Description:
Helix content of chain A: under 10%
Oligomer: heterodimer
Low-confidence stretches of chain A: none
Helix content of chain B: under 10%
Mean pLDDT of chain A: 91
Shape of chain A: globular
Structural class of chain A: mainly beta
Distance between the termini of chain B: 41 Å
Largest sheet of chain B: 6 strands, mixed
Order of helices and strands of chain A: EEEEEEEEEEE
Distance between the termini of chain A: 38 Å
Shape of chain B: globular
Strand content of chain A: over 45%
Largest sheet of chain A: 7 strands, mixed
Radius of gyration of chain A: 13 Å
Number of strands of chain A: 11
Number of helices of chain A: 0
Strand content of chain B: over 45%
Low-confidence stretches of chain B: none
Structural class of chain B: mainly beta
Amino acid sequence: xxxxxxxxxxxxxxxxxxxxxxxxxxxxxxxxxxxxxxxxxxxxxxxxxxxxxxxxxxxxxxxxxxxxxxxxxxxxxxxxxxxxxxxxxxxxxxxxxxxxxxxxxxxxxxxxx
Amino acid sequence: xxxxxxxxxxxxxxxxxxxxxxxxxxxxxxxxxxxxxxxxxxxxxxxxxxxxxxxxxxxxxxxxxxxxxxxxxxxxxxxxxxxxxxxxxxxxxxxxxxxxxxxxxxxxxxxxx
Lengths: 113, 113
């Protein structure tokens, strides 16, 4: 079965600093990978998804970016964090077909001060 | 474009009472529907899913949901609430012609003794 590793679990960063959140997946090959952000009271917002190495689709314009340098590695980055980037970031993995469920990591809680 | 609406951001029930969490979807193609549960500071766990076949789907922890095409609904129910059911619940939709899973804004379930 799939295991999703996300780190760090919590992060406090000042406004204007860079960001790098990493997600790695075990137990599957060529998965679809997702980054979601969960802000308080606002549900889950899809940020990026990837169907393969180097293939990234962005859902909303923002100062975040994503990269997939390896099949089972998905990285969320920012050059300069904004206060509004605070939230709970979740990485998710999906095997193969569109009717397969997503498996989620435990998330990273980011506070931008 | 697909979308999901969860009516009621907060639902409160007494222990032993019926749980009903509402989800309506919009999709121009046959949907795949999911319910996820999130406990505090954790990622999401799959409760159940509907893809094809039987419209009444049974999931973990005694939950079930019924796909009603005529009502474009996929409400989540449990006959008798338990204190451990207190969590946030998310409905989600996808289909064959997209790589994305779209989530509703979530419903926080509180269970009182």
